Amino acid sequence: MKEFEHRVALITGAANGFGKEFVKEACMRKMKIAAVDIEGAEVMALVEEVKAQGGEIIGIEADVTKYEEVEKVVKQVMDTYGQIDLLMNNAGIALPGEVWKLPVRDWEWIFHINVMSHVYFMKLVIPIMLQQGTACHIVNTASVAGLITSNGMPAYHTTKHAAVALSESTAYDLQAIGANIKVSVYCPGFVQTDLHHCERHRPEQYRDDSDPYYTSPDFYAGQKRAENVILTGMPINSVGMRVFTAIEDEDFYILTHPIYTTIIKDRVTDMLGGKGPDLIKLRKR
Fold it and tell me: What's the pTM?
């Protein structure tokens, strides 16, 4: 996808973090934007900010873990703009906690937002893109955690691996039918985003304040660990340009942290040699 002006970008998780940076870059490239987020007030504040800069944008409050709400989002975008050229599946959360401690509802929440929301949007948007016949692009936000693993974050790693596999397989399927749709999977390392504030975005159907886990030392330790990781990450201000340049170049894997390249290579080498990834090696790096 080389041309952006007057084309339509549908961006989820748009009110904060990567999503907000993608909206800013899309605005700079004079795209028409549909910004989707569960935080209605924040996404509408972003809409006003973009409009003040002369951008064309609509804001949509939606819980993308619900298929029926995703259907409504896609319908509203089509009713407003009549096309979708760039789909950026960016909404996501991170939930620390060992598999034997993390509540099942947290697994359900993280799977529905980190994986199933991608499925929902691609299921609905790809047929639209195919019918348009024009050059289109899909970017799924995953993580370097979808290429390597470590301790303490099994739910996050599992869903991000799934997001990478979903992107790879969909790219193969689109290539097999000669579709004019390219797919990218964005796999950043630690970046200064809003990811450590997941709890304020928790939908009611995944909430149970009576569960003692959410007042336990394990829960608070996980929250503190996530905050430390995010706040010491790289600045976010270069992300939008990097991702949109990758779209122009039709890159599949979008990697922003070269330091992980060696780890990924070593992991593959170890697996081919019949061994699993070396956790001590991953920690030292």
Answer: 0.90
Q: How far apart are CA 34 and CA 82, in angstroms?
A: 12
C-alpha count within 13 angstroms, C-beta hemisphere, residue 53: 17
Domain count, the chain: 2
Pick the catalytic residue from 156, 186, 206, 260.
Answer: 156
Which CATH number covers residue 222? Answer: 3.40.50.720
Query: Residues 167, 214: one domain?
Result: yes
Q: Are strands 253-254 and 8-12 parallel, antiparallel or unpaired?
A: unpaired
Of 209, 201, 194, 225, the residue nearest 103 (C-alpha): 209
Q: In the numeric block, which tokens belong to residue 147?
A: 């290429």
In a domain, residue 149? The reply is: yes
Distance from C-alpha of 255 to C-alpha of 248, rounded to nearest angstrom: 15
Per mean pLDDT, which range of 24-38, 130-144, 177-191, 258-272 is the poorest?
258-272
Task: State the helix-helix crossing angle for 17-28 and 40-52, rounded to 10 degrees.
Answer: 20
Each residue's pLDDT tens digit, 193-238: 777 777 888 999 999 999 999 999 999 888 888 777 777 666 778 8
The owner of tokens 């939606």 is: 62
Active site annotation includes 67: no
Per the structure, the complete domain to which residue 280 belongs is given by 261-285
Report if residue 36 sits inside a domain: yes
